[in-house]
Each structure stands twice: as C-alpha cells, then as structure tokens.
Please model this.
Amino acid sequence: QMLSEKFGRGSKTIDAELQNRIDSLRDVQRKYSDILRLARLLNARLSAVFQTQRALSDVFSELSAKSTDLHEEFKYNADTQRLLHKHGDTLLGAINFFISNLTTLCTKTIEDTFQTVKSYNVARVEYDAHRTDFEGMQANAPRTEAQKNKLENCRKEYEKQKLKFERLRADVQIKLALLDENRVKVMKKQLLLFHNATCAYFSGNQTGLEEAVSSFHVRLKS
Amino acid sequence: QMLSEKFGRGSKTIDAELQNRIDSLRDVQRKYSDILRLARLLNARLSAVFQTQRALSDVFSELSAKSTDLHEEFKYNADTQRLLHKHGDTLLGAINFFISNLTTLCTKTIEDTFQTVKSYNVARVEYDAHRTDFEGMQANAPRTEAQKNKLENCRKEYEKQKLKFERLRADVQIKLALLDENRVKVMKKQLLLFHNATCAYFSGNQTGLEEAVSSFHVRLKS
Model:
C-alpha cells in the first residue's frame, strides 16, 4: 500500500482538517524548542555574568579595604556587584523552572501525542490496503462459492481495520484537544513567570523577584 | 657593583620610603589590571546575554503574531527582551569607556612612571659603584701627585653620578606624586560612571543610564 501510494497509485484516505492540526502541532513543537534552546543559552550566559560580578565585587572589596583615597568609590561598586550576582541566583532559579517545564512539554507531553499520531498513520496505511483489496474484489463480482467466501473474509478484515483506524483517529483528536488545553495552560503560567522574574530582576525589584518565584513554587537550589 | 651587591658585598644606597611608594604603585597596577581583566570579561559576557535576548525577542515576536491563544503572553515577553538588549548597548558603551580609560592608566600613565623608576635604578647602581671606588681610594690616603690626580678624577666622576642619581630620584618623587593625583582623579570619575551606569541599567532606569553616559561624554558606537 505504501509503495503504490508512493508511485501515485492506490487511493489514500485523507483527513485534511486533522492533518492540518498535526502539522501545526509539529510547528509549535519546533518553535517551543527554539525558545527552550535560547532560554538554556540565556541561563548559561547570565550565570557567566554573575560569576564575573562576584569576582569583581571581591576585587572592589579588597581595594576598598586597602585604599584610603578611593575607599568609598570601591565600596559602593563592591556592594552593587554583590547585590547583582546575589539576586542573579534567584533569577537563574526562575529561568531553570521555566526551562524544566518547557522541556517536559516539548519532550514528554507533545511527544506522547506524536506517538499516537504514529500509530494512527500505521493504521491508516493498513486500512487503505484492506479497503483497496476489498473494493477490487467486490468490483470483480464473485461467482463461485469459494470466491464469495474469500470476499466475505476480506470484508471482515477490512471492517476490523476500519474500526481500528477510526478508533485511533478519535484518539488523536482527543489527545490533540487535551494537549492544546494543557499547552495553553502551561505556557500562560510559564510565560508569565519568565516575564515577571525578568522584569523584577532588571528593574532592581528584589521583592518582586522573590514574589514571582514563590508564587510559581520554584524550588531554588540552596 | 651589581655583582658585589648580589654577593652581599659593597654598600647600597637605600631610600626605604621611596622604595615603599614604588612597591605600592606596582601593587596598584596589578590590582587595577585585575579590574580591567574582569571588566573586559563582563563586557564580553553581557554582550553574549544581549545577543540571546535579541534572539529571544525575535522568536517571542514571531509566536505572538502567529498565536491567537498566547498572543498577549508572547508579546509582553518580546517587548521586555527587546528593551533589555536595546538598553544593553548603552551599558556596554559605558563599560567600554571605563575599560578604555583604565587601559590608558595602567599601560601608559603608570608605565611611564616605571620607565623613570628604571632609569633611577640604573643611576643608583652607577652612583654606588663610583662611590665605592672613591671611598676606597680616599681611605688609602694618596701620596704621589699621580695618585692625588687619580683621586680627584674619581671624585669628579663620583659627584657627576651623584647629581644624576639625585636628579632622577627627584624625578621619580615628582612623577609619583603627580601620578597619584591623576590616578585618584581618573579612578574617582571612572568608578562613579561604572557604578551609575550599572545601577541605572539593572534598575530599569533608562533615563538614568543615558544621563550617566552623557555626563561622562561616552562616545557610543552608532
């Protein structure tokens, strides 16, 4: 069946609406994976910035203790860099939580639906093969008892495959609907967390940052 | 003279107070070079963060245009990331200005004083060599006319070297004083710029960031 489809022969059962929904899910998965990749990169690069700020605050601090002439200037720089890398850890915790939830969504939740889509595609090919057999046999109007028996068996097999195919199509439709609902719920929450934590950190709002993190139950590395 | 000093013979003219000031300048140069190295690293790492924020704002923006269900969530994230990397360029400009001024201080201004210190050290060795010669000759109370002439020549040479040594010691003292004044002036200004620009950026104060930068006449890459 797959071969005859490849060579343009044989008829193929097409559910255009369902196929569109599957294609657009694949697109969503691709785009969310882009976000995931960039969020991981952002996390690594911010972490490198915070390390440098820690080292800078140490040097400034040492110079502040040693210098009489620039004591104040080194001190306020040491304090600022220390605050920035300290609060930075909270921001990294929030971004890590975002990454972890998006990873689950992309590699488990969406992937699970694609497994059902795969089974559905296999069932579709088998169903079309049996349907083509049955239709061909029916067109050659069977005359002998043996021919009639063969047609009857073929019809039974065809209907069994049809049921299986229709059950899997319904499965895919249900999973797609549930996934869509779940995806929107997860992303709404995660995008809000990501935004609130980012805004709070980059506006020097430490209270806001703590609140963003605790309202999303982010577990921070101690 | 250097050899006999190395083997613990010969006497060495020591200006302990001046030597302390030279040693502490060497320490200052080392510490400021640490700041310089870390500031360069911070600049490179922040620049990498801003690049990622730019890429993130592009993906969020694309998804905001495509999605109906999460349009708002993607949009405010796109806007925030765009603002952060846009203002980031101003911060990088300020840090670059700080780096450029510290580089001049460490590799030109301080280095210039060390060149004078080097000449002073050479003159000190030469002076001590001639002094040792002269003192030795004087101790062996010369009797003949030839010996007296030799002593007189030796004394002249010794006094010429003494003058040269004292002139260079005065040069070093003046340069150290001027350098100290200049160093404190430059560092006060640069540490204030660095602090104000950092605080303004990380508190989301774009006006403050622009003000910090323009008050220090930082030329930004267009």
Q: What stands out?
A: The helical segments of chain A are 2-6, 16-66, 71-139, 145-202, 206-215. The interface with chain B takes residues 31, 34-35, 38-39, 41-42, 45-46, 48-49, 52-53, 55-56, 59-60, 62-63, 66, 69-70, 73-74, 76-77, 80-81, 84, 180, 184, 187-188, 191-192, 194-195, 198-199, 201-204 of chain A (CB under 8 Å). Residues 24 and 30 of chain A are 10 Å apart (CA to CA). Chain A has one domain: 2-215.
